């Protein structure tokens, strides 16, 4: 197979990195940082745990929007700062959201943030409350002012993830329609918008089912990575056991011009809870990817994932090894490979 390259990512020579250990027993192309977790319990007096969180390069280091579970149990989002993407300083104050006139407009709660740069703007997307679980969105250019965009979707919906660029002239966003609780179903859908305000032309991308690790529900994880083989998507898949849900990470490759069309979908998980900080914590047996960093020069990818709703873990792969693994273990499910208008 020809070597797969990352497109339009630029250089990130200081990407957090460790080589794949020689003694790994698994064949999965994703391996963990040996000093995991990189964030966890009680980082500030206000926050009990930090987990499902998103990171981007910023100035001479990195900035993160972190899911911090407050000591009253209510989730919120906080900024983190790091020189190396591994050691983090966590702000004690919540992200100060405002409305479009600059007036304070804090969500009641906010969890599972994603942080994606599109053109010259950074978008934070989270799950909040709008008469039920739904998608919150805000934009910033300086990480000082955070302007909310009025409710992009009606409830119930979560796991919204933006594409890092327009496709055929429109912005694209994944989401996962749900219900009010620990939803026992869920597929990934794609929506498009000319202006980041009005979203429509919704299409179905991938369903749950098939292999057992993703049999109950799935949701987009990190912003898709543009590659020479298509959009590389890391997502979470959920299985049900007699002790509750188990969250694993999967991978798929989507058509570069029509990303509702799945080209390859890995039948095996890429990462599943195995380490003590993944199998034990506030919610055991959860790995929940929310962000990646990538270096276009080397093809290195660093994946940030929530572990057991308690910690942030870091894992690594290369674009060539992960795309080829997905391709060589691909099983498509009913309708995955079609562009689906469904009307
Ligand atoms: C999902 C979300 C995630 C969480 C996961 C496992 O429904 O609430 O924030 O990590 O459950 O508890």
UniProtKB/TrEMBL annotation:
Keywords assigned by UniProt? Hydrolase
- The keyword Hydrolase appears for this protein: yes
Query: What top-level branch of life does the organism fall under?
Result: Bacteria
Put simply, this protein is called Glycoside hydrolase family 130 protein
Q: Which source organism does the UniProt entry give?
A: Aristaeella hokkaidonensis
């Amino acid at each position: 197979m020809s070597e797969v390259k990352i497109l339009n990512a630029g250089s990130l020579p200081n990407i957090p990195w460790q080589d794949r250990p020689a003694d790994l027993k698994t064949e999965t192309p994703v391996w963990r940082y040996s000093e995991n977790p990189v964030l966890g319990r009680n980082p500030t007096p206000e926050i009990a745990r930090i987990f499902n969180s998103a990171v981007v390069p910023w100035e001479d280091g990195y900035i993160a929007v972190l899911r911090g579970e407050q000591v009253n149990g209510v989730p919120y989002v906080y900024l983190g700062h790091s020189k190396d993407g591994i050691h983090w300083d966590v702000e004690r104050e919540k992200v100060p959201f405002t409305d479009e006139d600059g007036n304070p407009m804090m969500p009641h709660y906010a969890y599972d943030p994603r942080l994606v740069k599109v053109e010259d703007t950074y978008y934070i997307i989270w799950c909040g409350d709008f008469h039920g679980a739904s998608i919150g969105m805000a934009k910033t250019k300086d990480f000082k002012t955070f302007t909310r965009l009025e409710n992009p979707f009606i409830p119930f919906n979560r796991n919204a993830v933006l594409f890092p660029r327009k496709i055929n002239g429109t912005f694209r966003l994944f989401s996962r329609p749900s219900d009010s609780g620990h939803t026992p179903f869920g597929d990934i859908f794609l929506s498009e918008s000319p202006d980041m305000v009005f979203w429509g032309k919704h299409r179905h991308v991938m369903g749950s089912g098939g292999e057992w690790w993703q049999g109950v529900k799935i949701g987009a994880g990190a912003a898709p990575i543009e590659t020479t083989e298509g959009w590389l998507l890391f997502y979470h898949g959920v299985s049900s056991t007699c002790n509750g849900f188990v969250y694993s990470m999967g991978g798929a490759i989507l058509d570069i011009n029509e990303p509702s069309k799945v080209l390859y979908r890995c039948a095996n998980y890429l990462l599943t809870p195995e380490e003590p900080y993944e199998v034990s914590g506030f919610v055991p047996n959860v790995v929940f990817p929310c962000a990646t960093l990538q270096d276009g020069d080397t093809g290195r990818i660093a994946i940030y994932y929530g572990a057991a709703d308690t910690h942030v873990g870091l894992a690594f792969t290369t674009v060539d090894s992960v795309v080829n693994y997905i391709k060589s273990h691909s099983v498509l499910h009913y309708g995955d490979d079609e562009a689906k208008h469904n009307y």
